[in-house]
């Protein structure tokens, strides 16, 4: 075989071998061309295969009016089955925001977070085949969200309300398949300063875990949150409790061991507002 032909053949074989070893397209170009992407991949995804995927929808304002409270919504339902959703911000000093496990829930979550500067905000959804599907949005921000002290520290009574939960649950708009339990939209707010540890003289103090269970204690969804989640965090998820379920249980704790606990009625009425103190 001519030398030129051998080179072409070897090159083609190498390309086939790389493609076979990395079917998830890990060599795809970052759509945001972020200088931090390689670091973010190693931090959040490790060595797992991934692909940039428009089916993972991340929505947020183009410009953050309040760097302490940036609304973000993630929707990965177009992927079908999803085991985990990791949300992170490339340019934040603490990039990890949360890890969501929709055990018996739709792969969607809405929250508010803190931004230190303009950055790509990403969501990576892990499918059962072990591939991460990465979507994102770029948000411009004046900055300072992660290094500002929580407003709670200006209120001398804030510790009395620490861990209080306010929540509502109501039937989701999406219709369920015949014979299946209907999904329920749950929106919950927890009183907590969510200190990042980056403000002078204030150590990190944040909610680590929130778990949503049905009345029998079966786990429906789990949120493992990090410091950049906004003060008094608000989360919206869609879970699927049993058809005869009457309440959802919310439990959790922060990094100081403060316990969080609330019961949320499923038969929502205008007066239904569940409040629980630690």
Distinctive features:
2 helices, 10% helix, disordered N terminus, single chain, nine-stranded mixed sheet, Immunoglobulin-like, 278 residues, mainly beta
Major sheet strand order: 1-8-7-4-5-12-11-14-15
CATH A-level architecture: Sandwich
Q: Portion of residues in helices?
A: 10-25%
The shape is globular
Head-to-tail CA distance between termini: 77 Å
The assigned structural class equals mainly beta
Which CATH class applies here? Mainly Beta
The number of distinct β-strands equals 16
Summarize the helix and strand pattern as letters.
Answer: HHEEEEEEEEEEEEEEEE
Count of domain modules: 1
Which percent range describes the beta-strand content? 35-45%
**Rg (C-alpha, Å):** 21 Å
Protein name: Sulfur oxidation protein SoxZ
Pfam family, one: SoxZ
Organism: Skermanella stibiiresistens SB22
Keywords: Signal
């Amino acid at each position: 075989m001519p030398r030129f032909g051998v080179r072409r053949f070897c090159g083609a074989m190498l390309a086939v071998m790389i493609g076979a070893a990395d079917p998830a397209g890990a060599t795809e170009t970052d759509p945001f061309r972020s200088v931090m992407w390689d670091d973010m991949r190693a931090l959040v995804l490790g060595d797992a295969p991934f692909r940039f995927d428009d089916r993972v929808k991340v929505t947020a304002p183009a410009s953050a009016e309040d760097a302490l409270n940036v609304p973000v919504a993630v929707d990965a339902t177009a992927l079908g089955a999803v085991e985990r959703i990791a949300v992170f911000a490339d340019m934040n000093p603490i990039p990890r925001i949360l890890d969501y496990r929709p055990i018996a829930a739709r792969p969607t979550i809405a929250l508010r977070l803190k931004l230190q500067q303009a950055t790509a905000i990403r969501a990576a959804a892990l499918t059962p085949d072990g591939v991460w599907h990465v979507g994102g949005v770029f948000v411009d921000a004046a900055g300072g969200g992660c290094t500002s002290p929580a407003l709670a520290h200006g209120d001398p009574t804030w510790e009395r309300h620490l861990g209080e939960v306010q929540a509502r649950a109501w039937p989701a708009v999406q219709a369920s398949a015949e014979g299946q339990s209907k999904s329920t939209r749950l929106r919950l707010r927890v009183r907590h300063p969510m200190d990042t540890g980056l403000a002078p003289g204030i150590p990190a103090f944040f909610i680590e875990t929130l778990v949503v269970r049905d009345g029998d204690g079966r786990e429906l969804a789990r949120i493992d949150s990090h410091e950049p989640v906004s003060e008094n965090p608000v989360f919206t998820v869609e879970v699927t409790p049993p058809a005869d379920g009457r309440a959802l249980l919310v439990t959790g704790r922060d990094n100081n061991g403060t316990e969080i606990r609330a019961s949320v009625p499923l038969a929502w009425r205008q007066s239904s507002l569940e409040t629980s103190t630690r």
